[in-house]
Structure formats: C-alpha cells, structure tokens
Amino acid sequence: MNYILWIITAFLAVLSGILAFLLLKNKSSAKSIISAKSEVEKILSLAQQEADKTKREADLEAKEKYINLKAEFERQTRDRRRKFNEMERRLVNKEENLERKYQVFERKEREFSSKESRLYNREKEISEKEKKQEELIKKA
C-alpha cells in the first residue's frame, strides 16, 4: 500500500506542481499583459507628444513662411509703386517739355505769320510804287 500511496502522493505532487506552474504562468501572463498595456500607453503617449510637437513645428514653419511671403509681397508692391511713381514723374516732365515746345512753336509760327504778312504788304507796296514809276516814266 505504501507503493500506491507513494504513487498517489507523487501524482498529487506533480499535479500540484503543474497547477502551480499554470497559475504562476497565468499570473505572469496577466502581469505581462498589464505591462504590455502600460508600455503601449507609454508609446501612444510619446507618439501623441511627438505628433503635437511636429504639428507645432509645422505651424510655426507655416507662420514664418507666411510672414516671409507677406514681407516679400509688400517689398515688391513698394518697388512697383516706386517705379510707377517714377514713370508718372517722367511722363509729367515729358508732357511739360512738350507743352513748352508747343508754346515755342506757336510763338514762332505767329512771328513767322506776322513777318510773312509784313513781307507781303511790303511786296505789295513795292509793286505799287513800281507801277507808279512806270506810269510816270510813260507820261514823261
């Protein structure tokens, strides 16, 4: 009977060892699962922080680019406005020069017309005097 008792005891010992192993394994698995969940949460938290940081950096970069583009646009606008004002000033100067030249031309044209009129009258007088002299010569 001792032999059977030894076998039953050995069997119960092996069975309790297996049972203890399974319980420890389950406990270890539960700890592993909890540990894995904790690790996943840490990784997700770090990923979220990194995503937030990247988003802030992208926002900052976009704002800087906007500011630079706006400054460039304003500089180009000032340059165009300055060039436009310079062109307008040149046109006004050309217009004033043309107006002066036109006035000089009109004055010279009036002077020429006046001289032409006096010359015509003078030629007419000379022609009349020549006719009178020819008549006097014919009468004499």
Describe this structure in words.
The longest helix is centred in the middle third of the chain and has 138 residues, at 2-139. The chain is 99% helix and 0% strand. The model has no long low-confidence stretch (mean pLDDT 86). It is built from one helix and no strands.
Task: Describe the structure concisely for a colleague.
With 140 residues, the protein is mainly alpha-helical. Helix content is 99%, strand content 0%. The chain has one helix and no strands.
Layout of strands and helices, then pairs:
Elements: H1 2-139
Shape: rod-shaped
Task: Provide the β-strand percentage band.
Answer: under 5%
Task: Identify low-pLDDT runs.
Answer: none
Beta strands, count: 0
Structural class: mainly alpha
Order of helices and strands: H
Counting DSSP H or I runs of 4 or more residues, the number of helices is 1
Radius of gyration: 59 Å
Helicity, as a percent range:
over 70%
Gap from first CA to last CA = 201 Å
List keywords for this structure.
mainly alpha; 0% strand; 1 helix; rod-shaped; 140 residues
